[in-house]
């Protein structure tokens, strides 16, 4: 897409001597002097209009430098702006926090502290986020090796030494996925991993009003029926009202990014399926978009249409499940969810026919998709989007939207308003329900979305009810897109590349982002020209959206917390990665 | 498969006029027949597999046919823990605690590759390579994730296992066996199993050089 002159930003002349262009081959964006970061960030937000900080991630350029990469966007659309800060790779590494400028950076900076050990000065609450307090080391550093480490890169050649199978356990002295410091004695160590969490909550528990009153800390999760997985929230309650709330996560942190650096580029594709496991088709797209940018390859027409059809069907089933599960959380035990699952099964049939798997589709390849549709499936999709799904969307609308209980629970319960939503980097339906018409499919169209006639679903009140309604709107818009796509889809090849286990990816960096059903899903990939990515970072919408959870919940009742969590639509595979 | 016909154990001749009115069976059979058709799973999902577990409960696959539709969020009311998803080091203390809280008779199904042995995430630094390192597993179901059909097949295997148990021999009716709680793992610099403290101390005292040669072999 061509860039308008008004969209171009020349930071180097605005900040001479402070900002310089990143001139490494394959890289783009700006290098910002560490000490001036907050000044530059404030100017970007206030002068240049980059209000939405989308992604913050660390990169370890072993052995000399660590880098923090920021991606900021305008909510009016257009290309983003990437800027970076480098620090010498010597502990202690310190970077000023941009959380005061963009509060949405809070959890992402905590993640970088946890995984890279870069301290963010002036950060309000710098604790580990995915691993527990007391864990030894910062695992994403290049010189930190996991207990089952064998070699830097896959494919590993040692799994079948001389034709015999060797399990990873045999190579570790503890015969398990464990490693301990030299001369470690477990009985002497007493680490209270929970202490820092409760310390941050303690200030809310005392009331100095002359009357002896207690506030209580309640832990919801990690095993709780309405936390949608192994999510945990430590809540401070005054009666039924939430005074403070800290999300605790990492219970499903399964090390996507560390594993992704050893995998070859294509080996990461099935791993992306397991991020947001409701929407493997969308996840695939975000990743292939980033790698295709690096490889600079085109996708054939038919494959583009197949991608759109699958991604939008995926969005439909995601939102149906969300509505069903939200009602479940509100107390309508499982009946709406069963309605939703009925439709979902029909969509999963399409996925299974196309890719061979119901949930973990692994459908995309760099330059296209893996398989064409079998005979008769396109007719099935047509039948779904022309008849059944519109009828079902109306049915949900008719059964639920005017339901008295639903209205009483949802209407007027504030989730977040537009300004705060942008400040907290919220994307996806939650942002649009608060009145910001920001949708990556329109703001910076990828694939062939510029061809379709659809509206960006928008609601204005930012309450729970609008968050529910916008899901129905989006289902209807997605149906519209698929209706057009199945009419227009041409015959032809489905991949511009020859099928290959390994692809050559030129050195450089790329950020691919799509509008996933839960928000902006981004993949930041750095290649050094080797078969494996140097850095593979997932900007997960669930993770970034949850940053504002405390902001959303303080002052509401504990029962509303469950509903708010329901409409933010988190999925733990993506939240914890 | 014990259907009603098999529940009647012949050997005692039932007079013709009492047919269909009187059944003679063994206590084991009656007891297991009741248990196998009312296995209540815990409402407990860890990752992707949990979604297929819900799909198995939903209309198309309908686990209610097996008397397993009542999912209980509380371990105190559950008979079966379906470990549906990747078990992480951060989560395993909670899983062991939940297992300890379940009353006997209790069963564990490891659903999917991750719960069975770590699956695609085995090499991850926060991943426990199989829930069976901590809690005893009755049935392993392969797949990533297993389809609802596979889950159903696994649960039918569990029913077969229940059929073969005898009241006289099961552990939960033995004297002094009900307090066998599994020690809860501790999160230190890495995951620490209290049952292995001495071993960890001894191995950690080895010189790094020895570790290197051992790793090479």
Outline the structure in words.
The complex is a heterodimer of chains A (577) and B (217). Chain A is 37% helix and 16% strand. Chain A is built from 19 helices and 15 strands. In chain A, the strands form 5 sheets. In chain A, strands 1-2-5-4-3 form a 5-stranded mixed beta sheet. The relative contact order of chain A is 0.14. Chain B is 34% helix and 8% strand. Chain B contains 8 helices and 5 strands. The model of chain B is unreliable at 210-217 (pLDDT under 50). At the A-B interface, helix 5 and helix 9 of A face helix 3, strand 4, strand 5, helix 7 and helix 8 of B.
Separation, N- and C-terminal Cα atoms of chain A: 32 Å
Largest interface: A-B, 63 and 58 residues
Query: Which class do the helix and strand fractions of chain A yield?
Result: alpha+beta
> Taking strands numbered 1, 2, ... along the chain, how are they ordered across the largest sheet of chain B?
1-2-3
DSSP summary: helix tally of chain A: 19
What proportion of the residues of chain B is helical, as a percent range?
25-40%
What is the number of beta strands of chain A? 15
Structural class of chain B: mainly alpha
Helix content of chain A: 25-40%
Radius of gyration of chain B: 21 Å
Query: Strand percentage of chain B, roughly?
Result: 5-15%
Major sheet strand order of chain A: 1-2-5-4-3
Unreliable stretches of chain B (pLDDT < 50, length at least 5) are 210-217
* Main sheet: strands, sense, barrel of chain B: 3 strands, parallel
Q: Which regions of chain A contain 5 or more consecutive residues with pLDDT less than 50? A: none
The termini of chain B sit apart by 50 Å
Biggest pleated sheet of chain A = 5 strands, mixed
Using only C-alpha atoms, the radius of gyration of chain A works out to 24 Å
Q: Strand share of the residues of chain A?
A: 15-25%
Series of H and E elements of chain B: HHHEHEHEHEEHH
Mean pLDDT of chain A: 89
